[in-house]
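This section describes the prediction task in plain terms. A model, or a person checking by hand, is given the sequence of a single protein chain and must write out its three-dimensional structure as a string of tokens. No templates, partner chains or ligands are provided. The sample shown here is typical of the held-out split.
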Amino acid sequence: MPHDNVILAFDTSAAHCAVALVSGGRIIAETVEEMTKGQAERLFPLIQDLLLGAGLAWKDIARIGVGIGPGNFTGIRISVAGARGLSLSLGVPAIGVSAFEALGCGLDGKIIASVDARGGKCYLKDLTQDRDPIMVNVADAAHVVAGSDFQVTGYKAEEIARTAGAKAILQPTPIAVAIALITARRDPANQGRPAPLYIRAPDAAPSRQTVPTILP
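The expected answer:
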């Protein structure tokens, strides 16, 4: 069956390798493989498998959406470098989508999106306001979530909502699908090249594994 305007979306910003193919708002195929390492080796074979299973080829891709974090530094760089390379080789636009945007996809109301920042911390962003996300201890997140008007989604959402007197809400859309749906709404002419969303500097030693270098 032919598909028009196929969007390829993928994300490796967390302990997973997530890929989706979406066309006209309809999910053609999607998958998530949980993994703490090995995303660099697995990402492109996984995309290839999804394309073949859907009867598609690389040339059928009209647009690329990629998760830019925040999250695992190496994982973000793998996805962003992959999206830039594919965009160049296929001659199609690539659009970066943050984890906060993906968490808010399809949800209504006053949403606080929470992303794992490790070490007992989380990144929080109020999706109703154009402000930078903040990093706080999970135990202190209730002070940021201003009561019952808010819904919290993402990392430790139930814990944060319970202590803040707010409501936890599940994001039912798989992350790669959410990235694809958001990508479909964006005007590529108004988008720069995807770039990693780093909220804090790395606090660990560099990986011994070679990872893609992100150029300006």
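For orientation: Confidence is low (pLDDT under 50) at residues 203-208.
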